[in-house]
Amino acid sequence: MQTPPLPLTRDLVLVGGGHTHALLLRKWGMNPLPGARVTMVNPGPTAPYSGMLPGFVAGHYKRSELDIDLIRLARFADARVILGTVEGIDPNKRQIHVPGRPPVAFDVASVNVGITSDMPALSGFAEHAVPAKPLGPFAAQWERYLSDSGPASVAVIGGGVAGAELVMAMAHALRSKGREAQVTLIDSATALTATVPKASATIRQSMERLGIEVLEHASIRQIIAGQIELSDGRQIPADFITGAAGARPYEWISDSGLALHDGFIKVNPYLQSSDPAIFAAGDCAHLSENPRPKAGVYAVREAPILYDNLRAALGAGRMRRYVPQKDYLKLISLGDKSALAERFGTSFSGTLMWKWKNQIDQRFMNRFRDLPHMSAAVLPRQHAAGLREALGEKPMCGGCGAKVGRGALQTALQEIPRLERSDITPLPGDDAALLTTGSVRQVMTSDHLRSFTNDPALMTRIAAVHALGDIWAMGARPQAATATIILPRMSATLQQRTMTEIMRIASEVMHHAGAEIVGGHSSMGDETTIGFTLTGLCDADPITLSGAKPDDALILTKPLGSGVLMAAEMAGQAEGAWVAAAFQQMVQPQSEASRILHNAHAMTDVTGFGLAGHLQGMCDASGCGATLSLDSIPIMTGATELSDQGVRSTIYADNRAIAPELPSGGKTDLLFDPQTAGGLLAAVAADQADVLCDKLRAAGYPAAQIGHMNSTPGLRVQS
User: Fold this and answer.
1) What is the 3-class SS of 26-48, one letter each residue?
2) More confident residue, 2 or 97
3) Do 555 and 569 reside in the same domain of the chain?
4) Does the pTM exceed 0.85?
5) Do 619 and 652 fall into the same domain?
6) Which CATH number covers residue 496?
7) How crowded is residue 194: how many other Cβ atoms within 10 Å of its Cβ?
8) Residue 116: its pLDDT value, please?
9) Can you give the residue range of the structural domain that contains 296?
10) What is the mean pLDDT of residues 647-671?
11) Quick one: 549 and 676 in the same domain?
12) 121-134 residues labelled b (16+ CB within 10 A) or e (exposed)
């Protein structure tokens, strides 16, 4: 007898993708706690590693080398990632608030959001400067600034170690680019007081060598465009200004109701806040019994303690105390590939220290670049013939990658008896049926998706847009919907939380499209599946597959590539930023595109059978052929690279068989990639195509003319 999946019973939510949480997720992936559902909430798909920021600013590292890929890490840990900026936490209701979605409920939560070096009290800072933390926005703006040419003027506010590292890195980068630069470090007191005199002297020598002007005991009156005005009347030219003076907690923490110290979350030796179900780690936390400066080394060493204590709070094991070390090794970049090492009052500097620092940093990042390979389940020694082949070499895809092949589906549909009702109009090949009730014409469709993300809210939004595609493709107005929801086994509490998220998002998407949810059905199963049955109203004749004419232009409203990207994401091969961008394409509704294309001769949505399969269906129904211009077809970021590596969705081989006459390799392979919540494919009069594409792009769709219909049957491609 096979063992069913274990039910989910507790929600653990990690707020922020800081170093502690990243290490915790890695450890969780190797040893998860059965019954616990893990969620990470973070503004973006990656989290930059602060230790390598000066090296990036100086030009020693690429931007991508700084990033911990949280989406890939979450897949490894079987966790869900919610991309959004937390705006509040409610300890009483056990909810975390993220804009644009229902509250995220938790049983146990942990906060690791770092700090900001924003300076709201400094006049003009918000308008004319960029804080050094959070690191992501700072790194992006510095990269853009460095790519400019001509003279430069840069100022760093804050003369601590962080400020000194940044200003030396900036000066080195500008010098390496051959740009004439005025670089200034400004501090309201004495700079570099946190280092021993020998180390301070070494850093000052490096700044002098790089031509950096150090202004100490300098009070800033205001920042205006292109300069900093000091209280004594001096004006410091600076068209790139950053702040690295001290650490400031995020404002939402002050409204959390948790006990705070200077705005930071007070935690006990177990990293628990004043609410025992809420933990905190890293720079956003204040260690009440052993206060320590804000430094990444503490966040890293807190990770194994936090891992054990969160498991204990969820019901497994005992808690451990965190005892921070009294001193730690400081490795300070000196601009070029030289560094200073300080500990226990002794310091050394030079290229060997840089190599040591780089080795430590790369070893840390390699823990996330090279995630352990988790072995696949072993088949029983005795099993039915064909099981290994049917199982395949990789997990089955979700979304439209899990569809039944077109050949099997068409064969099965041929066995259905001929329609006998006069109020149903057959539409061969179309995904929606045309119904007539009195003088009212309705279209009806049904679609569901096997989940490919652990976030039920995101999956619901994608599934709803996907199901609506059939209605929009026929030029109809969405009317009513019923939902069909299958959830994995979970406790009654988690059922309620999950269904609430799903139904709120489903109602929002349908209402925005002009439809209302009128009911549905739910059940428990092995995995999440979300689907909808929909009706739509036709004010005019529905747009079908059969109206295309030779010489019609073909317009596609969304790029291709979601199938290969989701297949790669499941295998841990896709970059998180690529996946996040694909999700943004999938959740884009096609209602306005349908309205713009209401005079199309033929239209369909590109989904499970890929562009080639759906275009072939249009050609068959219209008695035409088609020629595609490969260079004109928009492709999602990362899809071409993954396809060239041989990444394929589960249904790819079946789709490839639809048009065997087409060549293989390169961009052509993506014509057979199954799309989830894909774009509309419309055949329109050639003389209207340019105007329609302009309107679509103005409405926010990455639309393109991708080819034309012709009178010769079959599909062809041209570069």
Assistant:
1) HHHHHCCCCCEEEEEEECCCEEE
2) 97
3) yes
4) yes
5) yes
6) 3.30.1330.10
7) 14
8) 83
9) 10-115+249-326
10) 91
11) yes
12) ebebbeebbbbbbb
